[in-house]
Amino acid sequence: MLSVASREWRLRSRPKGRPRESDVELVQTEVPPPGPGTVRIANHVMSVEPYMRGRMGGEATYAEPYPLDEPMLAPTVGRVTDSADPSVPVGSLVLHDYGWREHSVVPAADCQLLDHEDISPAIYLGLLGIPGMTAWVGLTRIARVEAGDVVFVSSAAGAVGSTVVQIAKRVGATVIGSAGSADKVALVRDLGADAAFDYHDGPVKNLLRGALAGVDATGLDVYFDNVGGEHLEAAIRVVRDHGRIALCGMSSIYNSAIPQPGPNNLLKLIWRRARMEGFLLGDHTDARAEFVDRMASWIRDGAVRPVHTEFTGGIEGAWAAFNGMLDGTSVGKAVVPLAETAAPTGGP
Amino acid sequence: MLSVASREWRLRSRPKGRPRESDVELVQTEVPPPGPGTVRIANHVMSVEPYMRGRMGGEATYAEPYPLDEPMLAPTVGRVTDSADPSVPVGSLVLHDYGWREHSVVPAADCQLLDHEDISPAIYLGLLGIPGMTAWVGLTRIARVEAGDVVFVSSAAGAVGSTVVQIAKRVGATVIGSAGSADKVALVRDLGADAAFDYHDGPVKNLLRGALAGVDATGLDVYFDNVGGEHLEAAIRVVRDHGRIALCGMSSIYNSAIPQPGPNNLLKLIWRRARMEGFLLGDHTDARAEFVDRMASWIRDGAVRPVHTEFTGGIEGAWAAFNGMLDGTSVGKAVVPLAETAAPTGGP
């Protein structure tokens, strides 16, 4: 077997504040044939996600920083073109984490075989992937949502938020979402939210109070936080007794070069006996089977529907796609198609 | 029966910031004989507690604000002098909430009979009272402390904190305490803490890191927060995976007229999958039997010992005592003896 020509994004320096073009480089390279136990994959679609900003920084967070001068990582779906491991034959459609490149060599053990050719690959990156399961775990395990709860979610048109809106409605909650444009607000309502607002339209605390009044609620039982900052303070302000705040992300501060002050009303967590809890998906792999089962059935029923933004430009456009997603230009799951998902010519 | 002369502290205006003498008034009054279902009590010792500051303010917190122009409330131990209810006979030693006065008329249903004449009344206000049970509930139910945990507690020489130190040591934790003077730090060490520091000696984050190094620990499993502010931010900074922060009080901001910014590092709660939870004793009355059982046995064994500050001046000194407690001039449970705990002349 021969090497194949490929392009990949390598991290050249650790961004301070907003990532810049000079922090990365698109490199032309040759991907060798797979060695024993590995497979070579032609990638079809890759994901860009907010957490990647954290891994580009050098600080020890929950995940290893991306090494400098190597290709970055991203959840990606592709087709196996060459296999040196019988468990993942040529022609398999697989999900793996070796994205930010056109062709990848991946250990067979790191490939998840995708059986359902009828399900769009992007769904494996979205509803059935990290964002979908993050919404599920945050709502059911951390916030312990129940029918009748009033649930507020920020970035409600985002990959996680748009799933939170739909799951919360499915379990019988009243749902309020915030988003960053009129179009996004319309989408959030369309997904089933009982109320939604554009956070640019005034102080979040006022907008949230208005939304609560609109659904005849006196406060929140659950806040699913994707942004931190002003949203978090506003949510604490109206949390009800025994409220639960699931801390999933804080996109309002990811690009801050200096620490931002936190909410000024934490005393309310005492008065309301409220709980605020951070979580990461890696602690909840045991929830996966139940999640996939439930979500696949919701998708089949049409009870939950995928929301995607496909950025154009293939691998060349991936960096702009990542920054566009961070800047809020996308709705739902932001993906970057790299090549056609053609049916395999050979294979099983 | 005749009325008895008594003095009582009434709230005249709602304090802004630090309470002032002009916010209250010591009033000479006549306490009538008890009506049906009530008893009249000569009070021996009353408690002054941080939460009273909140009830003096007009804001709706977790507890009703004290009404203006009426006597305030405080946990108090006294002897029944006149009874119009057979369940609480004359001569009974009782715990009730109608303090800030020398004589009280109290519904029999609001009196807790204190059976053990050998236990000092102040213990019923401290180790066996609200502060003791607050320490117990916060550690066992909210922070779910376990043997081997590294526990940090602020206001560690205070009524709650000094009990947290002792309970945490009893269950096998490593304990670090912070307090506001060299004498208090010495007391905290004497109560069994493995490390203690005076928070005036530098940035709390540095002092806490030093204390952790001193006990060979890399971070905290539990932070029992009595003060908020800089302490809370410092604790979040070094919280370990799955850490628990029990929010009990925020004395650093009780007297703030304007909201203070919160910790700037809440993102760490996500990275560390940490939980921060407020609590109030009223939700945990079902823990009372187990708590009293355990604490009474620890007190009898000498495994946990009472720490009290008795303010002088009787009822006249109660206002100064309250402010002294807020200002940190007391250690352990701050109490105000009102009259001798004489053996009853009549009674059972």
TrEMBL record, chains A, B:
Residues 17-336 form the Enoyl reductase (ER) domain. It comes from Rhodococcus wratislaviensis NBRC 100605. This is Putative oxidoreductase. Keywords: Oxidoreductase. The keyword Oxidoreductase applies. InterPro entries: ADH-like_C, ADH_N_2, ER, GroES-like_sf, MDR_fam, NAD(P)-bd_dom_sf. GO terms for molecular function: oxidoreductase activity, acting on the CH-CH group of donors, NAD or NADP as acceptor. Residues 1-25 are annotated as: Disordered. Gene3D superfamilies: Medium-chain alcohol dehydrogenases, catalytic domain (3.90.180.10), NAD(P)-binding Rossmann-like Domain (3.40.50.720).
